[in-house]
Design brief:
The chain is α/β, with parallel strands linked by helices. The protein has 15 helices and 20 strands. The protein has an eight-stranded mixed beta barrel, surrounded by five helices. A seven-stranded antiparallel beta sheet has the order 3-2-1-7-6-5-4, covered by helices on one side. A four-stranded antiparallel beta sheet has the order 9-8-11-10. A hairpin with a 3-residue loop joins β2 and β3. α1 packs antiparallel against α4. Bound molecules: ligand C2E. The site of ligand C2E has 21 residues, from β13, α5 and β17. It catalyses: 3',3'-c-di-GMP + H2O = 5'-phosphoguanylyl(3'->5')guanosine + H(+). It is found in: Cell membrane. This is cyclic-guanylate-specific phosphodiesterase.
């Protein structure tokens, strides 16, 4: 393989960097989206758990107050213990006379009533809250939440939140008090009043999230804790970076390989041109009604010690190398040598050559009438030109008129695939129009494209042109084309591109069978 050119190296590098950055960007945003979803789930979980406890607390307190006990007697204590037993979340229930706690489910009747501290907050429904309260119950230290209304209070264990791992977020549970909020649990200052929540795909820095309950006056706020994030996601980020760089590196390797292969193929073609290494195959063209071979198209082939290369690959290189005329000249001269073995076919036997449109415009084809083998050819020589905007100029028209005057025929090739300027057809002195094979391929399915054939034929006939259909692969297509008044056909149904010896044999067989007919 040839060495990489500096310019190609830069292009490969820039493209690979773009891929690396693009992939890094996509992965980073996927990570952000994942964090946001995670954040949302955690906030929803906390609020859901808080709501369950809020419902439990208010139901228990309302029910006990409704019983109307004024003293801490056995009936009251039993009612309190039953309520505690039925609750899933409450740890203890206390009974108050005025502002003194006189009995609890855990300790029974207290020897000395305990005076109550002022609450941390009273919520909109009149419930007093003591948050983050250190409490000693059965020799266990508790960081409890207490809620009281009228004569009863309940003790809640807030560890249900701590049991959920909140990393990499810092969080705070607050109670709404009109326009204000009061801290209930978590990290103070996390909830910021009026701070808007960023969208799912916003920057990583905009990591604040808040969610309020619809059934209780509580809100939870979560914010990304940069340290916890780096700790929890550091490895993931490193991995994503590694993936991006690996893909970028792979991209660089593939691009440099493709550039070098492109250069290598281009060099093969350059060498092939210098060493005259192309050769010709011939594909029969038939009269569609009789299926008799009335001519052939010369198609170029290339093969060197590295193997064959298809025309679809080498034709663009010939254009890129600006050697179109040299290539055409070489192949015409080879073909005319080959064709010298063909005899007995008559002067109407058509031999078609493909011509590059740019050679029509740049006057190169003006040389054709002076090439002796063409001038003295016993065949009807046809030059096929792909319809192209190149052909729209004066010089193209002048050169084609000169070819026509010199006795050559002109065919418009691959009609319908490119420029398709009908005005052009009138001015180009052509006698034949070749319908591109893509129109013929799906005739059986009655595609929109194939339904255009009859219009193309009408236009061609209106201009006095004969029509050749390319890519005829089966009898059904041949019959349909005959019905559409298409005169000639070319395709695998009548013969693939073949060496001259094989074409000669085909013509010989055809002649023999005609001669045998009575
Ligand atoms: N699927 C299918 N394909 C069929 C059938 N019948 C013919 N073909 C293919 O259709 C192409 C017809 O040639 P084109 O339209 O001039 O298209 C040609 C022509 O534009 C260009 N080319 C080939 N040789 C030369 C040449 O000597 N000079 C120039 N300027 N171009 C050439 O390369 C193109 C491709 O050539 P090829 O690969 O030989 O492909 C040929 C031929 O092998 C069929 O029934 N089914």
């Amino acid at each position: 393989m040839p060495t990489l050119r500096v310019r190609d190296g830069w292009v490969a590098l820039i493209l690979s960097l773009l891929v690396t950055m693009g992939l890094g960007f996509v992965l980073a945003y996927t990570l952000v989206a994942d964090i946001r979803v995670n954040q949302l789930r955690k906030a929803e979980y906390v609020l859901h758990e808080v709501e369950k406890r809020a419902v439990d607390t208010t139901t228990v307190i309302k029910k006990l107050n409704a019983l109307g006990y004024q003293l801490c007697d056995q009936r009251n204590l039993l009612a309190m213990r039953r309520a505690l037993f039925q609750s899933d979340h409450i740890k203890d229930i206390g009974f108050f006379i005025e502002n003194n706690l006189v009995c609890t489910t855990g300790m029974g009747m207290l020897e000395t009533p305990v005076a109550e501290d002022p609450p941390d907050l009273i919520d909109l429904n009149g419930y007093s809250l003591w948050v983050d309260r250190p409490l000693l119950m059965f020799d266990m230290d508790y960081q409890a939440i207490m809620v009281r209304k009228d004569r009863y209070n309940v003790v809640l264990d807030p560890r249900f939140i701590s049991h959920t791992t909140m990393a990499p977020f810092s969080w705070q549970l607050v109670a709404r008090m009109g326009d204000e909020v009061e801290h209930v649990f978590g990290v103070r200052g996390t909830f910021i009043i009026g701070k808007s929540v960023p969208g799912l795909f916003s920057r990583l820095g905009d990591s604040y999230y808040t969610h309020c309950s619809a059934v209780s006056p509580y809100c939870v706020a979560l914010d990304l804790n940069q340290l916890a994030f780096a700790h929890g996601y550091g490895l993931v980020i490193l991995l994503l970076l590694l993936v991006s760089f690996c893909v970028g590196g792979g991209c660089f390797a593939i691009l440099t390989y493709l550039f070098r292969r492109h250069r290598s193929d281009k060099q093969r073609i350059k060498r092939g041109l210098a060493e005259d290494a192309f050769y010709c195959l011939y594909q029969p063209i038939v009269d569609l009604r009789t299926e008799q071979v009335i001519g052939c198209e010369m198609l170029a082939r290339f093969e060197d010690n590295q193997g064959p290369m298809s025309p679809d690959r080498f034709i663009p290189f010939i254009r890129e190398l600006d050697r179109t005329w040299l290539f055409t000249r070489q192949l015409i001269s080879k073909a005319m040598d080959d064709l010298s073995i063909i005899s007995g076919v008559g002067v109407s036997f058509r031999v078609s050559f493909n011509i590059f449109p740019q050679d029509v415009t740049n006057d190169a084809i003006a040389e054709l009438p002076h090439i002796p083998s063409l001038k003295e050819s016993p065949f009807d020589i046809v030059f096929e030109i792909t319809e192209d905007e190149y052909l729209d100029g004066d010089s193209a028209r002048r050169n084609l008129a000169a070819l026509h005057q010199a006795g050559f025929s002109i065919a418009i090739d691959d009609f319908g695939t490119g420029y398709s300027n009908l005005n052009q057809l009138k001015k180009l002195h052509c006698q034949l129009l070749k319908i591109d094979r893509t129109f013929v391929f799906d005739m059986e399915e009655g595609s929109i494209k194939s339904s255009l054939i009859k219009h193309i034929v009408a236009i061609a006939h209106g201009l006095g042109l004969k029509v050749v259909a390319e890519g005829v692969e089966n009898k059904m297509q041949r019959d349909a084309l005959v019905d559409l008044d298409v005169e000639y056909g070319q395709g695998w149904a009548f013969g693939k591109p073949m060496p001259i010896v094989q074409l000669n044999q085909l013509l010989q067989t055809q002649r023999n069978s005609v001669e045998r007919q009575p």
